[in-house]
Amino acid sequence: MPIHIIPVNKLSAKALQGVIEEFISRNGTDYGAMEVSLETSIRQVKAKLEGGSAVLIFDDETETTNIFLSDDPVLKKMDAVPEVIK
Fold first, then answer.
1. Terminal Cα-to-Cα distance of the chain (whole angstroms)
2. Which residue segments constitute the domains of the chain, with CATH numbers given?
């Protein structure tokens, strides 16, 4: 299966921080209606991952990591439910 959900507790704090920072930096400077600091953005994303409202996805095919809201329609459209790495 090419798509995997990576439990955040399987990553070191440093690795998780790096994944979150890279994810946030992909969005450039489009912060929406209100600009927030990098630290605030990191805390918000980390809280969503740890709380289960967001998931960390690894795609074997593209060798990329991404973060999706757990109820994102994109996840529901995948051919098969992503495998959870244990």
1. 14
2. 3-28+35-84 (1.10.10.610)
